[in-house]
């Protein structure tokens, strides 16, 4: 266990790197209008600016997690920082549709390396109460980062330029690289070789699966390809000695519950983060800046609550805290489904948003802890990869489901209400996963 005497630089590197990933995953939501204007993009092309990032992010996640196990976490982490920083620079410099789409794809590869590696470094570095606290901060960053990104995106798009949101990652990546070299221990990785059949089949299968969700054409063939390649991947992982994703990870009831619950929970939240700023701008007359700033109540409450997670976990247990958090998130989402312009911003959005913020602050850290529970050091990277896969796939599925639900209704208010209600249904499924799998699995240990 590594103890920092003055300042925990390792935790800073982990959290800041994770924040960069979340920033570029969500900042696009409040900057899309400006990006479309500057680069003359139509709606179909604009959707790919966000979708291609999800495609490569989801496709390379398992590879990123396993690479850290085999080749050393610090080395792979540094490679991820270089790719992500360079990708961010290219996005900011983009002058046309092909350039920004290619740059976002490249950036997604960097995120796929960084996301599981940062969590695996955390698992290697901390033990006991310090690990609980570090995971609490890491999990909280998932909600805080996404919410803050909406605010930052609105500020940059309105007062400066959307490009600043990507340029800012370049100096941060350089700083993180310096801190990694200085403070992260050099590890040699494990003996073994990369499973190329598993790597390629997982890459193609995950990419096809994400495309079948977010793509606007050839979705059915993509889904068939996804089923075929993922079936091959599972068979390969079952038969070899050094799999890229050990199937024993799914032999634990608590971890299975965490994976399933995280998928549904992030599905609801990603859809919520996407459609709510649009409602504010179209129905309440908010600018992009005001829509971003309107998420401050959720962000502040989320931050305050997240700081208490380590203490509350010791009191109520990880599973109990998770059940409470999901239930509060669902209650806030149900409340928001009654929004109308007559109800207004404060009662129709701010009040339920604060309940959602409390629930989000209580949920994401326990989800992360349960997703890596009972893993040995050799499986830390793979388990971290699966946690992030469920995060990414869940977000893509949920966003697609909520946007599709919204489009089924003629009026935006009615569409928003039913979409948020669908999000509440996804949260109910997440709650059932926590009650039926995570809590019993936690008590069995």
Automatic annotation (TrEMBL):
<feature type="transmembrane region" description="Helical">
    <location>
        <begin position="287"/>
        <end position="307"/>
    </location>
</feature>
<dbReference type="Pfam" id="PF07690">
    <property type="entry name" value="MFS_1"/>
</dbReference>
<dbReference type="InterPro" id="IPR011701">
    <property type="entry name" value="MFS"/>
</dbReference>
<feature type="transmembrane region" description="Helical">
    <location>
        <begin position="193"/>
        <end position="211"/>
    </location>
</feature>
<dbReference type="GO" id="GO:0005886">
    <property type="term" value="C:plasma membrane"/>
</dbReference>
<feature type="transmembrane region" description="Helical">
    <location>
        <begin position="101"/>
        <end position="123"/>
    </location>
</feature>
<keyword id="KW-1133">Transmembrane helix</keyword>
<keyword id="KW-0812">Transmembrane</keyword>
<dbReference type="GO" id="GO:0022857">
    <property type="term" value="F:transmembrane transporter activity"/>
</dbReference>
<dbReference type="InterPro" id="IPR036259">
    <property type="entry name" value="MFS_trans_sf"/>
</dbReference>
<feature type="transmembrane region" description="Helical">
    <location>
        <begin position="256"/>
        <end position="275"/>
    </location>
</feature>
<feature type="transmembrane region" description="Helical">
    <location>
        <begin position="162"/>
        <end position="181"/>
    </location>
</feature>
<feature type="transmembrane region" description="Helical">
    <location>
        <begin position="45"/>
        <end position="64"/>
    </location>
</feature>
<feature type="transmembrane region" description="Helical">
    <location>
        <begin position="9"/>
        <end position="33"/>
    </location>
</feature>
<dbReference type="InterPro" id="IPR020846">
    <property type="entry name" value="MFS_dom"/>
</dbReference>
<feature type="transmembrane region" description="Helical">
    <location>
        <begin position="76"/>
        <end position="95"/>
    </location>
</feature>
<protein>
    <submittedName>
        <fullName>Drug H(+) antiporter</fullName>
    </submittedName>
</protein>
<feature type="transmembrane region" description="Helical">
    <location>
        <begin position="319"/>
        <end position="338"/>
    </location>
</feature>
<keyword id="KW-0472">Membrane</keyword>
<feature type="transmembrane region" description="Helical">
    <location>
        <begin position="344"/>
        <end position="364"/>
    </location>
</feature>
<feature type="domain" description="Major facilitator superfamily (MFS) profile">
    <location>
        <begin position="10"/>
        <end position="442"/>
    </location>
</feature>
<feature type="transmembrane region" description="Helical">
    <location>
        <begin position="419"/>
        <end position="440"/>
    </location>
</feature>
<feature type="transmembrane region" description="Helical">
    <location>
        <begin position="135"/>
        <end position="156"/>
    </location>
</feature>
<keyword id="KW-1003">Cell membrane</keyword>
<feature type="transmembrane region" description="Helical">
    <location>
        <begin position="217"/>
        <end position="235"/>
    </location>
</feature>
<keyword id="KW-0813">Transport</keyword>
